[in-house]
Design a protein that fits this description.
heterodimer, A: mainly alpha, 67% helix, disordered N terminus, B: mainly alpha, 2 domains
Amino acid sequence: MSSHSSSSLPMSGKLWDGGNEPFGASYGKLMMWFFLLSDAFTFSALLLAYAALRFSSLSWPVPDDVFAGVPFLHGHFPLVFVGIMTFILIMSSVTMVLAVEAGHRGARNEVVKWMIWTILGGIAFLSCQAWEWSHLHHDGAWWGSNPFANADGTPGQVNFTNLFFTITGFHGFHVFSGVVINIIVTIMTAVGVFDRRGTYETIEKIGLYWHFVDLVWVFVFTFFYLI
Amino acid sequence: MSGEHSSSFDIKGIWMVFWVLFAITAVEFVIALAIPETFMAKPIKNVIYVTLTLLKAFYIVAYFMHLKFERINLIYSILLPTIFVLGVIAALMYESDYWFTLR
């Protein structure tokens, strides 16, 4: 049993109605976990639909040929740009854990610092995605339109672009939501809301969401760009 | 917030997990770009990619999301329902095989 209930917290804050934290986690944190589980099912459904459509197709566009553009450079650089995007998202996950760690120590300025880095990482990722989308759109790719030929030379089917824009778009929307919530939480930290509340647990909760966004990208990266 | 959390996972640990994730991603890039498919067939590469992805997922969920240090009933509540995903995979593999023969 957690014996660390700080004196600044009212006892009712630790109690569920009729029970005492059966999961060893607060109600809010537990509900964040359950929300993320349901969100994981949504992304699983999207990725599995992608897998089913791809494996039931005779041929499919080659990712190395489709995703080979890099800003300011002309030429064929397979996976380079998405590698940069992956690195940015992992880095922003690291700065988010560092914010959570600083929150455990109640170091307000450090939390603000690491949250700002996390927000910058999120914005950088979204900027990269915006560039990639506009680059592909420039090539004629969009929902319902696929200019990329299949590996066997036959015309590519629109399933490829439909799935790509839907799945990366849904993920990008999660990143965008995360950036917005991160900004709100950073402002709350800066004005001392969590100091008055006596706990930085809100940082942990938004941290869980942010890592989940990173987790989804790990899977999107593998199934769309590598396989 | 509490001492037990920070002692189980400190700043050194955070950076260690970062380097693990970085190294796994680097290995994926080497396999994708530097190893020709005449040497390593695409299906073998795919198995390696999925294995490495699941390994990365483990490190993110266990350490960054701290699930490894939560109480066991919370861990099971989150991990066991993912068995439904395996069920959908099994169903769709059967289905897509059927679609394939229809095309």
